[in-house]
Specification:
Layout: H1 8-14, H2 18-24, H3 40-46, H4 51-66
Length: 67
């Protein structure tokens, strides 16, 4: 389960399917240096994105990949 406290790089590493969700939200920061130390909530806020919705969409992508 992905949480808003998780590091962005950790999420992409553990769940490669999450990359498409980040891209859909316009978060190209997955490859930027800030993604190494920012948690998901900080990254979402920096991009003006609703963190709770992003977490829900990321978890849905993970669940769909596991099904």
């Amino acid at each position: 389960m992905i949480t808003k406290e998780m590091n962005i790089i950790e999420i992409v590493t553990k769940h490669p399917e999450s990359f498409a969700v980040f891209r859909a939200y316009g978060m190209g920061c997955v490859g930027c240096s800030a993604a190494q130390f920012e948690n998901l909530d900080e990254g979402a806020q920096a991009h003006g994105i609703d963190t709770e919705q992003l977490v829900a969409d990321l978890n849905a992508a993970v669940a769909a990949d596991e099904a």
